Amino acid sequence: MDSKVADRRIDARFDPPAVADLQATVRPGCAVILVDVSAGGALVQAPRPLRPGSKVHLQVTAGSHRLAIPAQVVRCAVWSLHPLDGVFYRGALEFDERVEWRWTAPTVSAKVVPVHTDPALAGANLHAFKRGR
What we know:
The chain is mainly beta. The chain has a domain at 18-101: predicted glycosyltransferase like domains (Thrombin, subunit H, Beta Barrel), CATH 2.40.10.220. Helices cover 5% and strands 43% of the residues. The chain has one helix and seven strands. It has one helix spanning 125-130, and strands at 23-27, 30-37, 41-46, 55-62, 65-82, 86-95, 111-112. It has a six-stranded antiparallel beta barrel with strand order 1-2-3-6-5-4. Strand 5 and strand 6 (86-95) form a beta hairpin. The termini are far apart.
């Protein structure tokens, strides 16, 4: 029973930029880790499940660059179980429009998000989530 698995990827996937201050959030309100990205979507790791079919905004911050990308959750599954940190999920996001991952300027499909000067408003939960990374 030898069957080949078809690769459904439309775009090449690549690792997110290797910058120390990279942060990602799936709105409404879930800090995530970018596993890989492409022009058409992203694979994210989250501390809670993402509901397939739901509309979300992926907000990505790297230094002074902030992008907000509308997307839809395509699938989500348990990725790992940890005795202290709990359950981690991996979810696939399909972007509403293609994104060129340029960190020097936003593209048509990614909008600049205002910078919060108050650290409490800029994803304070991410630090607790990064421990489980």
